[in-house]
């Protein structure tokens, strides 16, 4: 491994295997039908792993590397997380994820670090195919694939990606010291990015399509109070312009009047929401109008028996680390009951007793 | 082994004057996606060491070189051939995708 610290990224299927399973070979992974496999390594997937491992289900967690976003999920792209209970002084997003991963590992979760490329949940057991050609069979499947940043889909975006266009302020803010950057979006993440970017940039302009922000009051206030942050409301970016291969500005259109204008800037950060990572389940798992997986609330059961969903892939309302963790817990407990019931029963009966599992 | 650190100081001798193609991983400690790509680049270094020299440059400690090559986003991988940037790969990718991008150097 290199000198990178922080998040450890195992390089093979046997990395991160609990000691008692350390000798398990790859072909065993291939042959055996597992009780629970979890796809996704953010707070939802890791919490599901902690609960499933403690229930002796020997979960396999597949932590994708690229397709659905970074290993460890969106939290690995954030800095201070101030609203996760139990950390009165806040905690760094990557560290929080690393802690959860260690906790999952401690109880015997086995990790496979690669992308899943194909899933077949039409028959029992479900089968998963990975990028390197592994086939993994499981009785219960927990989908915690999360969401990834939405793009603007305007001219110039692809060409200037990485040349001033970014979706990760914590990664790229550094390169905009004393420069003018634009943040597109009006939610909490837009406010967080804008506020973070003022550490480097001389000026940050937030561009939002509507006349008011969606962000929480505390995040809005923080941004409004910051002298370096300006706001342009009722405007949408119609083109990203470049000069000498670097971002030079944007073309804007007023969403109310249709008037067009241009704004010069050195960089543009996207914070315009997320798209749930559901492509593995297209046409198989039911989704709502916005593409999020539908679960049988309050359980995490999808329309396919034995397949449960948790975290941002099924939640477009709350989308917090803590709510993702909460639904991950639900999914593991639902999977446990599904397995205990012989694999054919509804995950959570309406009259189910409240959980009394000790922590 | 993995990728070898390179700095502003030895950039010229290690990269510009290399007789092999050089892959440079521009990264920083605070960059989450860099931590995914880093180990993959290390593997590529270990497996293709004869065909391509693989280095990593910490942009925090070596801002001059990063600026000179217009690095505005990390991770960025640059391949140098005969002292000139020959290929630019921006953003985190999986090993298969990276090897595909690097096919003409390591294939």
Provide structural commentary:
The complex is a heterodimer of chains A (359) and B (107). Chain A has seven helices and 19 strands. Chain A has helices at residues 26-31, 43-54, 93-106, 169-172, 188-197, 217-225, 321-340, and strands spanning 33-39, 60-62, 80-81, 91-92, 110-112, 116-120, 126-130, 135-143, 147-149, 165-166, 180-184, 203-207, 229-232, 235-243, 246-254, 260-264, 267-270, 274-276, 307-309. Chain A is an alpha/beta fold. Chain A folds into two domains: 19-149 and 275-340, FAD/NAD(P)-binding domain, CATH 3.50.50.60; 165-272, FAD/NAD(P)-binding domain. In chain A, strands 1, 2, 5, 6, 7, 8 and 19 form a seven-stranded mixed sheet that branches. A five-stranded parallel sheet of chain A has the order 10-17-11-12-13. A three-stranded antiparallel sheet of chain A has the order 14-15-16, with no helix packed on it. In chain A, 48% of the residues are buried. The longest helix of chain A is centred in the last third of the chain and has 20 residues, at 321-340. The model of chain A is unreliable at 1-25 and 344-359 (pLDDT under 50). Chain B has a single domain, classed as 3-Layer(aba) Sandwich (Glutaredoxin), CATH 3.40.30. Chain B has helices at 11-16, 32-48, 63-68, 95-101, 103-106, and strands at 4-6, 22-27, 53-58, 76-81, 84-90. Chain B has a five-stranded mixed sheet with strand order 1-3-2-4-5. In chain B, a hairpin with a 2-residue loop joins strand 4 (76-81) and strand 5. Chain B is globular. The two termini of chain B are 21 Å apart. At the A-B interface, strand 10 and helix 4 of A face helix 2 and helix 4 of B.
């Amino acid at each position: 491994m290199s000198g990178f610290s922080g998040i450890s990224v195992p390089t093979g299927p046997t990395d991160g295997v609990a000691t008692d399973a350390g000798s398990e070979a790859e072909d065993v992974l291939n042959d055996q039908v597992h009780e629970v496999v979890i796809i996704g390594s953010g707070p939802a997937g890791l919490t599901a792993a902690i609960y499933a491992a403690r229930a002796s289900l020997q979960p396999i967690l597949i932590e994708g590397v690229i397709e659905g976003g970074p290993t460890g999920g969106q939290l690995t792209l954030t800095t201070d997380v101030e609203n996760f209970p139990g950390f009165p002084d806040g905690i760094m997003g990557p560290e929080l994820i690393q802690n959860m991963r260690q906790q999952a590992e401690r109880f015997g979760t086995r990790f496979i670090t690669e992308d899943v490329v194909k899933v077949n949940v039409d028959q029992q057991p479900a089968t998963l195919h990975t990028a390197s050609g592994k086939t993994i069979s499981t009785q219960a499947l927990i989908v915690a694939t999360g969401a990834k940043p939405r793009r603007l889909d305007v001219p110039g975006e692809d060409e200037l990606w990485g040349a001033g266009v970014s979706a990760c302020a914590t990664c790229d803010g550094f390169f905009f010291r004393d420069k003018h950057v634009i943040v597109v979006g009006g939610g909490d993440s837009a406010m967080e990015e804008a506020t973070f970017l003022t550490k480097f940039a001389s000026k940050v302009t937030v561009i939002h399509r509507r006349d008011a922000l969606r962000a929480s009051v505390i995040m809005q206030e923080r941004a409004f109070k910051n002298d370096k942050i300006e706001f342009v409301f009722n405007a949408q970016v119609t083109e990203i312009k470049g000069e000498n291969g670097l971002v030079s500005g944007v073309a804007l259109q007023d969403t109310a009047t249709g008037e067009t204008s241009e704004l010069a800037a050195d960089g543009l950060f996207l914070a315009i929401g997320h798209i749930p990572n559901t492509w593995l389940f297209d046409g198989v798992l039911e989704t709502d109008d916005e593409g999020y997986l539908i679960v049988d609330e309050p359980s995490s059961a999808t329309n396919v028996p034995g397949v449960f969903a948790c975290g941002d892939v099924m939640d477009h309302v709350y989308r917090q680390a803590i709510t993702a963790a909460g639904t991950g817990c639900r999914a593991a407990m639902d999977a446990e009951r599904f397995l205990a019931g012989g694999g054919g029963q509804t995950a959570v009966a309406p009259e189910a007793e409240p959980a009394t599992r000790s922590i | 082994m993995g990728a070898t650190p390179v700095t502003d100081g030895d950039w010229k001798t290690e990269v510009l004057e290399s007789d092999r193609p050089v892959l440079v991983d521009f990264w920083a400690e605070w960059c989450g996606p860099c931590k995914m790509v880093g180990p993959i680049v290390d593997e590529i270094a270990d497996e293709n060491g004869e065909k391509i020299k693989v280095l990593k440059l910490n942009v925090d400690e070596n801002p001059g070189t990063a600026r000179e090559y217009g690095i505005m986003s990390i991770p960025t991988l640059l391949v140098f051939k005969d002292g000139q940037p020959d290929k630019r790969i921006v953003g985190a990718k999986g090993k298969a995708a990276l090897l595909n991008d690097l096919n003409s150097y390591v294939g």
